[in-house]
Design brief:
The complex is a heterodimer of chains A (95) and B (631).
Chain A lengths: L24 E7 L3 H9 L7 E7 L6 E5 L2 E5 L1 H4 L2 E5 L8
Antiparallel strand pairs in A: 1-2, 1-5, 2-3, 3-4
Chain B lengths: L24 E5 L6 H9 L16 E6 L5 E6 L11 H10 L11 E7 L3 H12 L5 E6 L1 H6 L6 H8 L3 E3 L9 H8 L16 H14 L9 H10 L4 H42 L4 H18 L2 H17 L1 H15 L7 H6 L4 H7 L6 H10 L8 H12 L4 E3 L3 E2 H25 L11 E4 L7 H35 L14 H13 L6 H10 L5 H11 L9 H5 L5 H13 L4 H11 L3 H28 L2
Parallel strand pairs in B: 1-3, 1-4, 4-5, 5-6
Antiparallel strand pairs in B: 2-3, 7-8
Helix pairs in contact in B: 3-7, 9-10, 9-11, 10-18, 10-21, 11-18, 14-24, 15-17, 16-17, 16-23, 17-23, 18-21, 19-20, 20-21, 23-25, 24-25
The chains are: A alpha+beta (95), B alpha/beta (631).
Chain lengths: 95, 631
């Protein structure tokens, strides 16, 4: 494996997907989770460097729906807290 | 033809191919939701499931595709996969088949790769992996109709040149471009080397490669359909989402009862008329009794429930194919989390209201193994369609229909609903107990892809219903028929001077009386005991059994089955019987599928013992309580 996601985050990233509010977007950075889950997320389009947008919030704000790489995917808060992002200013956002 | 001869553009420029196929066995591979199953159905006409939920194709199916020359090519439909990673069960199946090490599957000599043209950047990553296996591959960019409608585009020739494989833009739904398949199958395999394949293992590079391939093909993705966004803003609304969810679930069951019951009644009248004609057409005697009482009253009494069962599968099929089930999983996740499961368990559990067998197979989409086993263990508590005949029959026989809530909701509807709630409550309690003890897991991964909403295709729904009807009729024609004939024979033995015995002296009565002490505390007599024994093959067999037992009994011969049941059970016994059926594991098919899916006898046996013990104790309690209030 050329790329190791477990090594990628020695310290907790400053911003996670969970910090983004509804309608905000960010750039995916790294994953702090078991590799099988990280790989599954990447198959669904969660690839570091891609832009991700919070499109919807389910009943009670959990799970939330994200748009990434043209697909909508629902994730629970627990998992979105393990995904590092660099928040984008509304002016930079592209999706 | 030079190397570029195998590269195809949109197939409209090709004449129908002649000649014999170059390949004998071809595997159909693709990610979930790429329309792979629709394509497979289109090519083979084979009955098979198609759905919007990722991973609905959990087994591989085979069919044959007929070329214009009349030759046939075997197609293998493989589970939907995102990647070729042996850690995932579905992907391991795919890898095993493609490598020819899957028992029972012929090694394919070519691959048809189906990708969603609306999601090429993601799906081309799989193309890189599949092409690098080295088998001749045809890449189909499916859902061309949606791509064009949403303003997207892709050019196939540059992509074909880059990948070194033929590529065609097709629509499995409209049939557009599908003659590319026949072209591929008869073409001389002269494959140019791919210009460049990605370095595997690094997802970022794989995706960069996919994007580069896309831009070579001037790929432009279409916009997310506007109505998918609009529908989601309603169906996933913070407040209305939950309300709509509840309405949908109630509507599902309301439809089944309000439309299914009249259809069943009609069928019943039809079958009764046939029985009368049969009885008068055949000479009186042994054969007449076997055909009318053994076969027709036995197996026939189960057939009546076919309309309700098909209706249930139709409604679930529509929800699944339209894409709503994936949203329902998101809505229900919060509630499922409370019992330690997640929204992904919701879909198998809803299907379990139809039948636990497909439901247990559908649990393969649950990534967490412990969550999956917990879901498998509770699925048979959901009120499956095989319980419906028993519930309907017993309720109609014993519970007088009085209005409870206005003219539309009567005591019988309440009784039926209570049984549904009872099964569900036991499932929840069991899940909670399992998830806080032996199957505890920290894993919280709930990852649910939401496909765009689509109109369900009537053709694919019809194919699936045919499949269900066949399964049901097969069971009625084999297991249930065999049990009916066996029981009928046991009522005719031992013969005295060529005459059958009194029913109370027959062999079957001996069996019934033997188990009577065990079931008397529940208020059941020996006949019900025989019915219960037979129902462990499949729940609805008890109806057939009671039909046969009363069919040969001169005292109750002329009664309809509901009347006859009143000679076997008191009201309290009837309630106990309903409760027993709500909980007991009486289904050989379910046990077989649990054994297959968990790969051990441990879980099905534990499940059997647990469910049957719960059923016995609960039926006893129900009997005692009912005796106090209703005598």
């Amino acid at each position: 494996m050329v790329f190791n996601f477990m090594k990628a985050a020695p310290a907790k990233p400053s911003h996670t997907l969970s910090d983004l509010a509804l309608g905000e977007s960010g750039i995916l950075e790294d994953f702090d989770m078991p590799q099988t889950i990280a790989e599954h997320l990447m198959n669904l389009g969660f690839v570091p460097g891609l832009e991700i947008l919070v499109t919807r919030s389910g009943p009670g704000g959990n799970p939330r729906v994200y748009r990434v790489d043209g697909t909508e995917v629902a994730l629970r808060r627990d998992l979105s807290r393990c995904i590092g992002v660099r928040p984008l200013h509304p002016a930079e956002a592209g999706i | 033809m030079g190397p570029s001869g195998t590269i195809q553009g949109t197939a409209s420029s090709f004449k129908p191919p002649k000649g014999s196929p170059v390949y004998k066995t071809v595997a159909v591979v693709g990610p979930p939701n790429a329309g792979k199953t629709t394509l497979f159905n289109r090519l083979t006409g084979l009955r098979q499931k198609v759905g919007n939920f990722p991973g609905v194709t959990v087994e591989h199916h085979t069919g044959s595709f007929r070329l214009p020359s009349g030759d046939e090519v075997a197609l293998i439909d493989l589970p939907g996969v995102y990647s070729l990673n042996p850690k995932s069960e579905d992907e391991k199946v795919t890898i095993d088949v493609l490598n020819g090490v899957m028992p029972g599957a012929e090694r394919p000599d070519a691959i048809i790769l189906v990708l969603d043209s609306n999601n090429l950047n993601r799906h081309l990553v799989l193309a890189g992996r599949v092409i690098s296996l080295g088998l001749p591959t045809l890449v189909l960019l499916n859902m061309a109709d949606e791509l064009h409608k949403q303003g997207g585009q892709v050019e196939v020739l540059p992509l074909a040149r880059q990948l070194g494989t033929p590529v065609a833009l097709v629509s499995a739904v409209t049939g557009e471009g599908l003659n590319a398949v026949a072209n591929f199958l008869v073409a001389t395999p002269q494959i140019p080397e791919p210009l460049e394949l990605p370095i595997f293992g690094d997802p970022r590079h794989c995706r960069e490669w996919a994007v580069r391939m896309g831009s070579e093909a001037s790929y432009r993705r279409g916009a997310t359909p506007e109505w998918t966004r609009r529908l989601d803003s309603i169906f996933l609304h913070k407040l209305w989402g939950g309300v709509i969810f509840a309405v949908v679930i109630v509507a599902v069951f309301q439809t089944i009862f309000s439309l299914g019951q009249p259809a069943s009644d009609l069928l019943q009248r039809l079958l009764d008329n046939v029985a009368i004609h049969l009885s008068s057409a055949l000479p009186a005697g042994l054969i007449n009794s076997l055909v009318v009482n053994g076969i027709w009253k036995g197996a026939g009494s189960v057939l009546v429930f076919l309309p309700q069962i098909l209706l249930l599968f139709l409604v679930i099929g529509i929800l699944e194919d339209s894409g709503y089930l994936a949203r329902a999983a998101v809505i229900s996740d919060k509630v499922m989390a409370r019992v330690g499961l997640n929204g992904k368990s919701f879909i198998p559990l809803l299907s379990a209201y139809g039948c636990a067998v497909p439901a247990i197979m559908a649990t393969r989409t649950i990534e967490n193994k412990r969550d999956r086993i917990a879901t498998i263990l509770i699925a048979p508590f959901m009120t499956c369609s095989a319980r419906l005949p028993v519930y309907t029959m017993v309720i109609a026989a014993f519970i007088p229909n009085r209005p409870v809530l206005g003219p539309f909701v009567g005591t019988r509807a309440v009784a039926m609903l209570s049984l549904y709630v009872l099964g569900f409550a036991m499932a929840v309690a069991t899940a909670k107990a399992l998830k806080s003890s032996v199957l505890r897991s920290r894993d919280v991964a709930f990852v649910m892809e939401l496909p765009p909403y689509r109109w369900p295709r009537w053709k694919s729904l019809a194919l699936r219903l045919m499949d269900r009807a066949n399964a049901f009729l097969y069971r009625a024609g084999t297991v249930i028929l065999a049990v009916s004939i066996l029981l009928w024979a046991l009522t005719y033995l031992p013969m005295h001077n060529g005459q059958p015995p009194q029913i109370s002296d027959s062999a079957i009565a001996k069996v019934g009386h033997f188990i009577e002490p065990a079931i008397r505390p529940l208020g059941f007599n020996w006949r019900i005991g025989v019915g219960l024994l037979s129902s462990f093959a499949a729940r609805e067999v008890i109806i057939a059994t009671m039909g046969t037992l009363h069919g040969v009994d001169p005292e109750s011969h002329a009664m309809d089955l509901q009347e006859a049941l009143k000679t076997d059970l008191t009201p309290a016994g009837a309630i106990a019987l309903l409760v027993f059926f709500a909980f007991a594991m009486q289904c050989a098919s379910t046990m077989a599928v649990v054994r297959r899916e968990t790969n051990s006898w441990k879980w099905p046996l534990l499940q059997f013992i647990y469910m049957t013990a719960v059923a016995y104790v609960a039926a006893f309690i129900a009997y005692r309580i009912t005796l106090l209030y209703w005598n």
